[in-house]
Amino acid sequence: MNAPWKTGSLGNRDPFAAYMCDDGSLDVLRPIAIELGWAPEKCNKGGLRNAVQSLSISASPNILLVDLSESGDPLNDINGLAEVCEPGTVVVAVGQVNDVRLYRDLVASGIHDYLLKPLSPAALRDALAQAQATFAAPKAGDAAASKRHISTAVIGTRGGVGASTVATSLAWLFSSDEKLPTALLDLDLHFGTGALSLDLEPGRGLTDAIDNPSRIDGLFIERAMIRANDNLAILSAEAPINMPILTDGGAFLQLEEEFRQAFEMTVVDLPRNMLVNFPQLLADLNVIVLVAEMTLASARDTIRLLSWLKANASHAKIIVAANKVQPTFSEISKADFEASIERKINLSIPYDVKAASHAAKLGQTFAEANRTSKASAGLRELAQLVVGTSEAGEIDAGAGKRALLSKFDFKTMLTKKSKAPANGKEKAGR
């Protein structure tokens, strides 16, 4: 729906789905769907009730065509659709009631258009084309549509290289030094240290999101994330060791989508096993930071990861950061490391065990607890590399500081709409 649902990119969701009550309408719809490049199998039998049931367990499409013919109270039933419909979905309704009041109330509640049955191929084609244009166009006054956002994944080439330390420090630097609303997502679901390094309890937000991905929306994000400072919120887990996490990764994609709407920066602490199991997580990332150490094993896995990222995430900027660098001791030299990975190391962060211990005792991120150390200077340089990253020169992370969580409470807005009866005398004449 165009409003009150907020608009924005819907990532990899289906471009179209329809739920029609009768075979005649489906016969009119399917050739038009094929003409517009949509899969005809997305034209489903069943009206509004079937749409609500289906979308409660799956992501809604960019454009949704729904039949209200079997609904006794369309305006009230639209509330059920609002509860399961994703932000940004453009909804076109069809029905048999030719009533101006119904049409006006449906449009006021957020329906993009309302068509009368029996469907005319020309009118249906025109309505769906307009819905496509509406979905693609930025909305005037919609801050979320114009908001620029940088999503960064931090991946350690080996266990223990300090990727989590880098991820938490980057998130803190974005939020504190750059004053950018920032989300930190720790995807080490059983052993993550994101909350621990910030002296916070992880809470149940991330496990709840995995168990109930249909609940993920702006309000869920606001309630589930743990606030670290005015500009930094974290979502992490400390799942019991005897509890395997069963998910297809859809919840993580939905979380990334909500972060893009609510924050200016996202930092994902992405363990290698999660990268292997859910490669789709990289689809909308701007920057990938590979944290390496100067060892033979790390060089080998840096080569493997760079090769994989070149094939599967060519859109993202790759930054190779050498961490825990010791000038007097390393398993292999910087020159040999760079020769083996066939590219330069972007920056090096010195090894400082005392600073790491100091941060742990204070319950602060490494960068916060050790602002004057050489290692923190390296982390600030890395943060500047990420902030200065732009995709085709479009990202300007220093422009305008916007609110941390800007959203519409679409359910409240819908319930405030008039529930005028659908059998009034004034005709729509459509």
Describe this structure in words.
By secondary structure, the protein is of the alpha/beta class. It is 40% helix and 16% strand. It contains 18 helices and 13 strands. The strands form two sheets. It has an eight-stranded mixed β-sheet, sandwiched between helices. The protein has a five-stranded parallel β-sheet with strand order 2-1-3-4-5, with helices on both faces.
Layout of helices and strands, plus pairs?
Layout: E1 16-20, H1 23-35, E2 43-45, H2 48-55, E3 63-67, H3 74-84, E4 90-95, H4 100-109, E5 113-116, H5 121-136, H6 143-146, E6 150-156, H7 163-176, E7 182-186, H8 194-197, H9 205-211, H10 218-224, E8 226-229, E9 232-235, H11 250-262, E10 265-269, H12 272-277, E11 287-292, H13 296-312, E12 317-325, H14 334-341, E13 347-350, H15 353-362, H16 366-369, H17 374-387, H18 410-415
Helix pairs in contact: 2-3, 7-17
